[in-house]
Amino acid sequence: MSTADEYWDTIYTIKDPTDVSWYQQSPRTSLRLIESVARSDDAIIDIGAGVSTLIPSLASSGYTQLSALDVSARALDQLRSNDLAGDVRFFTADIRRWEPPQQFDVWHDRAVFHFMLETADREAYLATMNAALALGAHVILGAFAEDGPQECSGLPVVRYSISDLTQTLGPRYDVLASEQEQHHTPWGSVQNFNWIVARRAR
Ligand SMILES: C[S@@+](CC[C@H](N)C(=O)[O-])C[C@H]1O[C@@H](n2cnc3c(N)ncnc32)[C@H](O)[C@@H]1O
Fold it and tell me: Given CB 3.0 to 4.6 Å as the disulfide criterion, which of 47, 56, 104, 165 pairs with 109?
């Protein structure tokens, strides 16, 4: 069994970024939810950014304090090769073992938390998130819904209802919004996602 970095580096070596199930030409839901809570000078981090179009879209929309984290150095190299407006910080790390060097105003995760299969993985992820977010910061989390796929990129996932996501964040967070999304893969199948937007209140 390969480690997470080896697994994902291989995926990003053999696959074109536009030929993976999670590809979006425009990350509309993420952009709208981020715009609903963030100012342009807020520190925003995309967890498991991969080669997503989110960071380039935010950079060209005028967000000035962007960070991208991924376990795959290969993915971040490809993301970095975009002609990004402004400075973006890149962190090659496994989110379960990362020590954030700063706090963030917005934590965005699309299709990464659902890979945290064991209780220990989820606890480690949430401990990192809590360390990275001060009171008043926002979390935007999108995961496969309870009726979504059982696997992503050949790996098993945990599926979440909106209520599961609320419980996962726990009492420190006030939920501001939630929604369902149907993601259309490049080959036309539909994947149901659930999204939650929450504010750290305690
Ligand atoms: C399904 S892709 C989603 C990519 C991107 N968020 C998007 O929506 O296009 C999952 C991403 O999470 C990254 N990833 C998986 N496990 C991780 C971990 N433990 N720590 C950090 N990144 C991880 C993978 O390398 C991959 O880029």
Answer: 47
